[in-house]
Each structure stands twice: as C-alpha cells, then as structure tokens.
Design brief:
128 residues; mainly alpha; 48% helix
Length: 128
C-alpha cells in the first residue's frame, strides 16, 4: 500500500477504514420532476404572457403610465444656504439641560435645538 497523505489520514479518522468509498446521498424526492425541455417551454410561455397583456391593453385603449425620471443613488440634493460660524459661551447647567432635552426630543444635536430656539425668537419679534 502507498504512503498515506494527510487527506487519507483525515478520511480514515472521519469515516474509518476504506474512507475513500464515501458516496454522496441522493435527494429523497428522487430525480427532477421536470425535464430541461419542459422548463424551457415554461420559460418561453412566460415571455408570451406579457406580450398578450400588452395586446389586451391596446384593445382596451388604456394609456400607459407616464415614465418617471430615473432616480439617482444617494441623498437628494437640497438648496444650500450660506452659513457662517458663531461661537458663544453658556453655563454648564444650561448645556446639561439642553443635552437632556436633545435626548428627550430625539434630536441629533444641541445645535438643532439652538437653531429652533433662534428661529422661534425671530418669529416672536416679527423678524422672519
């Protein structure tokens, strides 16, 4: 007998002596229930169905739906406003209260809350 390689050792450990006689089981249902030709005919029949539906639509004089422009991946474009930096100091207690309010209102940042407050202030005094 020839020298055993690693694969022979593996088969012997997994399946005992004569591990090379391993066979792959067949499915319980047996062979395919349809032949290649039957599947091909069915696929060709499906291609004929949309054409038949189109003919029916023409007979009923149904107007086709207008095509929508293709959607591009990514975020939709929005108009950009000119921005400038603004720095100011606030008390620690107020900052902590704003952080808690941010979480309670499911906001992404304290900046959103401050922008909303400034907007409300401008509306209150009729400046917007």
């Amino acid at each position: 007998m020839a020298k055993k390689d690693q694969f022979d050792s593996f088969l012997e450990k997994q399946f005992g002596e004569g591990g090379r006689g391993v066979t792959i089981a067949k499915p319980l249902g047996g062979e395919r229930s349809t032949s290649f030709e039957e599947r091909q005919r069915k696929a060709e029949g499906e291609d004929e169905a949309p054409a038949a539906a189109g003919a029916v639509a023409e007979q009923l004089s149904v107007a086709p739906a207008p095509e929508e422009p293709a959607r591009r991946p990514g975020r939709p474009k929005s108009e950009k406003k000119e921005v400038c930096p603004m720095n100011f100091l606030i008390e620690r207690d107020l900052k902590a209260k704003l952080e808690i309010l941010k979480v309670e209102l499911y906001r992404s940042s304290v900046t959103d809350l401050i922008k909303e407050a400034l907007h409300d202030l401008l509306v209150k005094y009729g400046r917007e």
